[in-house]
Amino acid sequence: MADPHQFFDDTSSAPSRGYGGQPSHGGLGYPSPSSSHEAAFLADPMSNMAMAYGSSLAAHGKELVDKNIDRFIPVTKLKYYFAVDTVYVGKKLGLLVFPYLHQDWEVQYQQDTPVAPRFDINAPDLYIPAMAFITYILVAGLALGTQDRFSPDLLGLQASSALAWLTLEVVAILLSLYLVTVNTDLTTIDLVAFLGYKYVGMIGGVLVGLLFGKIGYYVVLGWCCVSIFVFMIRTLRLKILAQAAAEGVPVRGARNQLRMYLTMAVAAAQPLLMYWLTFHLVR
C-alpha cells in the first residue's frame, strides 16, 4: 500500500530505470551506438558514391600537382643527371684532372636517348658539380678560419658570389648561342653541369695552397686550369661544332668561325673564374 502522503512513487528498486540501474554497455551512462546503423551507412549507395568521388578527386589533385612541379622543376630530367655510382665518380674526377689521355668523347645513345651517366663517362652529371660546390664553400670557410678572417657574412658572400658568376655564365652562353643561331641539343642543365666541373680544380688548388703555400697553389691550380680548358674544348666542340657539320655549314664559313670563337671563349673563361674565386683564400 502506498503512503497517502507520498507525492511520487518509489522507483529506486526498479532494475531498468533510475540511477540505481545497471549501466549501459556504451560507458558513461550513454547508450552504445547500434552496429546495424553502421552497416546501413556503409551499404548506402550515396555514401559509397561520395567515397569514390573523394578518392578520384584526390588522385586528380595529385596528378595536377605532379604536372605543375615537373613543369617548373624537371624532376624526371634531374634524376638522369644524378644517376651516378662510385665507379663513375672516380673515373670522371680522373678525366677532369687528366683529360689528355682520353680519346673517345662521344656521348653514347640508346634509342635516341643518352644513356645514364653511370654507364657513360662522357655524359654530363650534376652530382659532381653539386658536391664540388658545397665542398668549395667548406674549404673556403676552412681557409678563412686558418687566417682568422672567418665570419658567416663573408662565407655567405663567397657562396653567393660563386652562384652569381655561375648564373651569369649560363645566361651569357645561352644568349650567345641564340645570337649565333646555333641549333644544338645543349640544354641549360648541361651548361650548369659543365660549368660546375671547375669547382673540382678550385678545391684542389686551395687545399694544396693551405698545405704548401702559394707555390703549391699556383702549381696545382695552373694544372687544373689547363685541364678544364682542354676538357671544355673537347666536350663543347661536339655539342656546337659537330651540330654545325651535320647541318652542312662550311668549316671555314663565318658562322662556323663564330661557333669556334664561342667554344674557345667559354673554355677560356673557366681558368679566369677559377683564379678569381680562389686567389684571396690563400695567403
Word description of this protein:
Residues 13-27 have low confidence and may be disordered. It is built from nine helices and no strands. The chain is an all-alpha fold. The chain crosses the membrane at residues 126-145, 157-179, 191-212, 218-237, 258-277.
**Class by helix and strand content?**
mainly alpha
Integer-rounded radius of gyration = 35 Å
How is the biggest beta sheet arranged?
A: none
Compute the separation of the termini in Å.
Answer: 114 Å
Task: Write a brief caption for the model.
This is Protein YIF1. The protein has 283 residues and is mainly α.
Descriptive tags:
Yif1_fam; mainly alpha; transmembrane; globular; 283 residues; protein transport; endoplasmic reticulum; 0% strand
Task: Give the SSE layout.
Layout: H1 35-42, H2 45-72, H3 75-81, H4 86-97, H5 127-146, H6 152-180, H7 188-196, H8 198-246, H9 254-276
